[in-house]
Design goal:
Elements: E1 2-7, H1 17-27, E2 31-34, H2 39-42, H3 52-63, E3 67-71, H4 79-84, H5 111-128, E4 134-138, H6 153-167, H7 170-177, H8 204-231, E5 238-239, E6 241-242, H9 251-254, E7 262-264, H10 274-288, E8 294-298, H11 317-327, E9 330-335, H12 361-374, E10 388-391, H13 394-401, H14 411-423, E11 429-432, E12 443-447, H15 454-465, E13 469-473, H16 495-498, E14 500-504, E15 538-542, E16 545-553, E17 555-558, E18 564-569, E19 578-585, E20 588-593, E21 595-597, H17 599-612, E22 626-631, E23 634-639, E24 645-653, E25 659-665, E26 670-674
Parallel strand pairs: 1-2, 1-9, 2-3, 3-4, 4-5, 6-7, 7-8, 8-9, 10-11, 10-12, 12-13, 13-20
Antiparallel strand pairs: 14-17, 15-16, 15-18, 16-21, 18-19, 19-20, 22-23, 23-26, 24-25, 24-26
Helix pairs in contact: 5-8, 10-14, 14-17
């Protein structure tokens, strides 16, 4: 179990470094990430490298028994690079150049940037591949974080090449995008530009492909660096840091390219539900590479600096969120950053070693957590044993983010809300891509899969026919993977297993806010809209009781007399019409819910579906502010609520070996029990 954070010695006089080593040992630090923003220090000008300072840093770490996760420093080019080569700078969708002076000032598709980054990584790995301090390589940093999309001429050239490879011919592209609409038909690939600002709505097929291109382009940068590192003979794992359910990068596609998954997560202390958003992203990281422990590469020791109100973490909250990550599969806990910066944009961001020194709550909690992690035994597998999965797709999110739908829904908010509904009930859940192997699960929930590929539809249908239980919720199976309607209307790809089709979507006035814990870096917000005089909700009565439906109240066509109507709308324009249906297909069942429930409705629906699939909560607890998770045979219980939680549970406490039959947890207290002993 490694423990540490970002270490930026280039920001400090060398006289401070020995104290850093002493304090790191005191805190129990075993690994630090070095060099993430050090390009300007490593390479003060083109062709010139200064290794002496980094040699001393790595030697010091090794002498003190601390490993380095050596970053490639490519996240931010120095000013000399963008001054000498201004063509490598990115542009926004209006064509304005984004200059150096901050971070990530480069066009990902720029040949100049790629050449300079390759030269830097090559020199770095040739020098340090065999250094005994280096335990892992971290390429770049948070790909796409501040520059979600680049619209520069570099992007235009690369986008055209990407499209040529995907479609082969202009005729195929024009057909997929439907460019006969609005006289958009292209007669040359050179006419195609990135999805820059236009007078009105952009082509949805073009928007979708531009987002695919952006994710692929960023992934190309990682693969470029990884291959340089591997080809130099480095045997350490190579990774980069993800950011939860981050919109621009399809982490399902990225995950196989990484040796180990890393994540950055900044739960908001102002949000009492933020631990649920954190649980979602931790489950996602575990699910991206099942059975392989992952790394929490960044979190805040205390407060951050970039929210409108940067509340401190409450006493014990940092440790509780750290142990939540361990419980959900992490084998390494880190922070941004080791020593709090005196200068620069993040000088108010907390550090493990704060400005106020070691006589502080932050330092005491940091050292206590180091001691806790040191005393943990090896936990082995990261597997949760979940029998429930939520199927979602980044491409469905990209398509839903486009304009011009019957109603606006925020997929980035709704998927964590479905997860939160299960989380409140202590129902273990994995996240899955709809085309991956689902045979380990008894229940798959597929909410709002607006875009559904033929491959995913066939996989979900096969899961049902093989005996699985599938719950599909509103605005699913609407378009194919070109964002086009299939012949025959809606729900064509899943029609055989669902037995129903949507006739009209019945958009409702959106709720004022969608409730749910925020995710890493607050990349998921709250859906909101001005309320009008139209219908704001549609009540549903079903086997789960009563639930309030939001966003859509779909009118269904029941296509087969064997389809059961389990629930009906009880209010609104569709009162009395089907709202929940069930269909037998092969050995399994498929349910369709023709609305999107509110938070309480999601809890009721998911609890009912789990019970129908024979799945019970992992543990009965006093309230839903108590979280229970499994990692193999290890059960972790954390109380995030202000009220003490006392209840019976048996197991052996993993660190002390003490046998327990009940727990008594105050707020942010936790216990980890081995139920095999």
């Amino acid at each position: 179990m490694h423990y540490g954070g970002d270490y930026n010695p280039e920001q400090w006089d060398e006289s401070v470094w020995p104290e850093d080593m002493r304090r790191m040992r005191e805190a129990g630090v075993t690994r630090v990430r070095v060099g993430v923003f050090a390009w300007a220090r490593i390479q003060p000008e083109e062709g010139v490298f200064d290794w002496a300072w980094l040699d001393r840093v790595l030697d010091l770490l090794h002498e003190n028994g601390i490993q380095a996760s050596l970053a490639t420093a490519t996240a931010t080019p120095p000013p000399w690079a963008t001054t000498n080569y201004p063509e490598m700078l990115p542009q926004d969708d209006l064509g304005s150049t984004l200059w150096h002076g901050s971070r990530q000032a480069y066009a990902p598709s720029s040949p100049v940037y790629r050449r300079l980054a390759s030269e830097l990584v090559t020199a770095l790995v040739e020098r340090y591949a065999q250094h005994p301090a280096v335990g892992m390589w971290v390429a770049n940093n948070e790909y796409g974080c501040h520059l979600n999309y680049d619209y520069s001429d570099n992007a235009a050239v690369a986008f055209r090449e990407w499209l040529k490879k995907k479609y082969g011919t202009l005729d195929a592209l024009n057909e997929a995008w439907g460019t006969m609409f609005w006289s958009q038909r292209y007669t040359s690939f050179d006419q195609i530009v990135p999805m820059r600002r236009a007078p009105y709505s952009l082509n949805p097929g073009g928007l979708l492909d531009f987002k695919r291109f952006t994710s692929d382009t960023l992934l190309e940068l990682f693969v470029m660096e990884r291959d340089i590192i591997k080809s130099a003979g480095a045997s350490q794992p190579v990774t980069t840091n993800f950011m939860g359910f981050f919109p621009p990068a399809d982490y399902w596609k990225w995950a196989p390219e990484l040796d180990v998954i890393c994540d950055d997560n900044y739960a908001d202390p102002n949000d009492p539900e933020s631990f649920r958003g954190a649980a979602f992203t931790r489950d996602l990281m575990r699910s991206l590479k099942k059975d392989v422990p992952w790394v929490l590469l960044e979190q805040a020791p205390n407060d951050v600096n970039w929210r409108p109100t940067n509340a401190p973490k409450a006493p014990g909250q940092m440790a509780a969120l750290s142990m939540q990550a361990v419980a959900r599969g992490a084998d390494e806990i880190n922070f941004f950053q080791w020593r709090q910066s005196r200068r620069g944009s993040e000088r108010f961001h907390s550090g493990m070693l704060p400005h106020a020194g070691t006589n502080t709550r932050t330092w005491r909690e940091i050292t206590a957590l180091g001691e806790t992690l040191k005393n943990l035994p090896g936990l082995g597998t990261s597997a949760s044993g979940a029998r429930i999965a939520i199927a979602f797709d980044w491409e469905a999110r990209w398509a839903l983010d486009a304009p011009d739908h019957p109603g606006e829904i925020d997929y980035g908010v709704l998927i964590p809300r479905w997860h939160a509904a299960l989380h409140r009930q202590q129902l273990l859940v994995d996240l899955v891509h709809p085309a991956e192997d689902l045979s380990d699960y008894d229940l798959v929930i597929a909410p709002h899969l607006y875009l559904l590929s033929d491959e995913s539809a066939e996989n979900l249908s096969g899961f049902v026919r093989a005996g699985g239980n599938l719950l599909v919720a509103a605005f699913s199976d609407v378009v194919d993977d070109t964002d086009s309607f299939r012949e025959g209307g809606f729900q064509v790809a899943l029609r055989d297993v669902l037995g129903v089709a949507v006739e009209e979507f019945g958009a409702l006035v959106p709720p004022e806010a969608a409730i749910g814990g925020t995710s890493a870096g607050d990349t998921t917000g709250s859906a909101s809209a001005s309320r009008g005089p139209g219908e704001a909700h549609a009540d549903v009565d079903g086997p789960f009781g009563a639930a309030r439906g939001e966003f859509f109240a779909e009118r269904l066509q029941v296509l087969d007399p064997s389809v059961e109507i389990l629930g009906r709308f009880s209010s609104g324009r569709l009162a009395g019409e089907p709202a929940l249906t069930a269909n037998r297909a092969g050995e399994g069942r498929a349910w369709y819910l023709a609305t999107i429930p509110d938070d309480d409705g999601m809890r009721r629906v998911t609890g009912w579906a789990a019970a129908e699939a024979g799945i019970a909560p992992v543990l009965e607890v006093p309230n839903d502010m108590v979280e229970v998770s499994c990692r193999g045979d290890v059960l972790t219980i954390i109380n995030y609520g202000s009220e003490p939680a006392r209840f019976a549970v048996t197991g052996t406490e993993v660190s002390s070996g003490e046998r327990v039959s009940s727990v008594d947890l105050d707020q942010y207290d936790w216990i980890m029990l081995d139920q095999a002993r």
